[in-house]
Design brief:
Length: 343
């Protein structure tokens, strides 16, 4: 099962809205096939594992291990449970049940009714952690929320406005290795969100430059449509959603999606509802301080990734305040990265 989790991570950032599942097939204590979920619309992990077996006659005396309950319904592809039954695999070991209403135990039921021996809950903790995005989306009806910011050694997230250069660009606190890691993270999540002040101050691209992969959907808060049309977020190089209260469609920019929200009432929850409707299963919230703090105060976050650089501003915009369980601390050259979980 640990190997299933390991290979499943190959699907990180490409399988959504499908879960990134890992599967392998064992015969006589030997792994004879393995697979992970293909990019959305492609084959599921079980199918890829079965297809990788060179001698299919061995399947009738094999055990299939899989991180998540095999699906039992028709979607982009036929049910995996049906294929397992068709190929005559007698034993199936499952990490966790699938909470999706179209599965929810039906895959297990179908396998058992066909005579398969099914075992559930092997390395359940590890499988729950691995499938955290998918599980959060379907159990809490919102994306898995990652807060990310960088702060100086003296606790500031940005300098005073007078300290900024005339050109609108990010004012870096972290080193290049930390910034590359952030781009890797972006490739792993479905969405990236930033507030109006951050976009106006930094003119960020919110894309992938230092890592290969699929760029996340940009979600930008712009209550009064203040952001100039020549800013990077309007380059139409990736899907972009602008959240505003302006209903005049003549102000819309072609190629950009606009969503109307009420900025006077529970903005974080409205954003979660919108992302759920848009099938955005995970999001990195990259700022600014006010936007980050609003999600913290609403208790709508799952983990925070906080960089602390070596430089100081003395004055500036204070970093958000957060309380949670420190899961990990990593030194990246001159930067310290702290991972905090909302347990």
């Amino acid at each position: 099962m640990l190997r299933c989790v390991q290979i499943a991570n190959n699907g990180l950032g490409i399988t959504a809205p499908n879960p990134m599942v890992g599967a392998l097939i064992v015969c006589d204590n030997t792994i004879i096939g393995e697979g992970f979920t293909s990019a959305y619309g492609g084959s599921h992990a079980e199918v890829n594992a079965i297809n990788s077996v060179k001698n299919s006659s061995l399947l009738k005396s094999s055990t299939l291990y899989v991180t998540l309950e095999p699906c039992s319904h028709y979607g982009k592809t036929p049910p995996c449970a049906d294929l397992i039954i068709k190929m005559g695999i007698p034993r199936v070991v499952i990490g966790i049940k699938d909470p999706h209403e179209k599965v929810a135990g039906n895959g297990i039921k179908k396998l058992e009714e066909a005579g398969c021996e099914v075992k559930i809950g092997v390395l359940q903790k590890e499988c729950l952690e691995h499938h955290k995005r998918f599980l959060t989306f379907f159990t809490k009806r919102r994306p898995y929320i990652i807060l990310k910011w960088a702060e100086t050694a003296d606790g500031f997230i940005a300098p005073e406005p007078t300290k900024r250069e005339e050109e609108k660009k990010p004012y870096w606190i972290t080193n290049t290795k930390s910034r590359q890691l952030v781009h890797k993270w972006r490739s792993e999540e479905a969405g990236i969100l930033a507030g109006t002040k951050t976009v106006l101050a930094d003119n960020p691209q919110l894309n992938l430059r230092d890592w290969a992969g699929k760029a996340p959907t940009r979600i930008v808060l712009d209550r009064s449509l203040k952001i100039p049309s020549d800013f990077h977020v309007f380059d139409c190089k990736q899907k972009t959603i602008i959240c505003t209260e302006i209903t005049d469609r003549k102000a819309d920019i072609e190629g950009i999606t606009y969503k109307i929200i009420n900025f006077n009432s529970d903005v974080p929850q409205q954003l979660c509802n919108m992302m759920y409707e848009e099938q955005i299963q995970s999001v990195i919230i990259e700022g600014g301080s006010q936007t980050l703090q609003s999600f913290i105060e609403a208790n709508l976050w799952d983990e925070a990734r906080i960089f602390r650089g070596a430089n100081s501003f003395t004055k500036g915009i204070a970093a958000p305040k957060i309380v949670g369980h420190t899961q990990q601390q990593i030194q990246i050259l001159t930067d310290q990265l702290t991972i905090v979980r909302n347990d």
